[in-house]
Structure formats: C-alpha cells, structure tokens
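agent> step 3/5: call structure_predict on target 'Lipid/polyisoprenoid-binding YceI-like domain-containing protein' (marine metagenome).
agent> reason: downstream docking stage needs a structural representation; sequence fetched in step 2, passing through unchanged.
tool.input:
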Amino acid sequence: VLVGIFLGAAVLSGQQAYQVALESDRLVRFTSRTVIDEFEGTTERVDGLVLLNTEELTDRTGGAESEIYFEVDLASLDTGIGMRDRQMRDSYLEVEQYPYAAFGGTIEQVVSLPGAMFRVTTRGILGIHGIKQERALTCDLATVNEGYHVNCSFPVFLSDHDIEIPKLMFLKLNNEIRMELDFILEPAELDSEN
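tool.output (status=ok):
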C-alpha cells in the first residue's frame, strides 16, 4: 500500500526503491529514563520506503531525488503492562486521533564505512501527535543480501510534539524519549519508466 501512495511517479532508470521487509524482524523501541525508573515500549509495526537516486547506496546517493518515508503504528506500542499501555495510548498519545508517528524527507549524505556499512544522514519532517517538526536523523545501514539492515537511534522530546508528560505512579516519563529503530530494507518491485 505504501509503495503506491509514496511513489506516485514511477521509478526512473538508474533509481532503486527499497521497502521495509515485513517478513523480517522489525523493532521500534522507545525508552524513558527518570531518576527512579526506566521503562520501554516496543512494536514491530513499522513500514516504509526508500527511493535512491542511484542503483545502490553509495557516497553519491542523496539529494531531492532520494526520498524516504517511514511510519510507526503507535496503537501497537507495548510496555508490558496493559493498564499503562491503555493510559499512554488514550490519554497521552491519543492514538485514535494521531495513529502514526511518521518521518518523510530526503537523504542528505551517505558516508561509506568499513565492512559494507554506511552512515546515512536524512533531513525531513517528523510528525508525532499532530505536530510536525523538521529534523535531521542519522542511521547506520549494513548491506545484507540485496538490501540493508537499518539501525537508528535518536531523541524525541515530548514537549516538541505537544504531548503532556505523564506523572502518574505507573506511567512516569522523562521529556526526552530515546527512539530506536531496527529493520531490514528489501528491493521494492515498482514500475520503471523506460
């Protein structure tokens, strides 16, 4: 579904599209640390696409023709405690109104690292809880088979997205949440304009 929505235009010759491999392990984790407590929530419900302006990831990849879009289903976040999950989803994330966290943008820079790895810097819009914010995110990618293993870690500040900071006994959060994403990108089958 995302393939058609995200890439309204066909892939041009010399471009390559990748999608989140839904048959592979996927993990999105948020971690909150306070002085007295730490807890995390996880989901495997992440989906997305990458359109490279090159046939494979290289130091030449980037620019307006290299687009990315990822989204996470916030209603599927699981902290291991049902009451805490319901309170977080209903009262703070308000998932009925704002079901997804999403990031869309372009690849700004790719740096080759030893061992068929890359450090990729992107710039785009992070949307959470109806608030959109321009962000630069950096991810590490490792070549696997015909795709890439993606690993990202970055902070999200609840106040930047107009999310009230819970202070209830069973749900104490810090304003700064650490987000981690871990998934595989595989080649996407798209039409080519030739």
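agent> step 4/5: record observation. The chain has a mean pLDDT of 89.
agent> proceeding.
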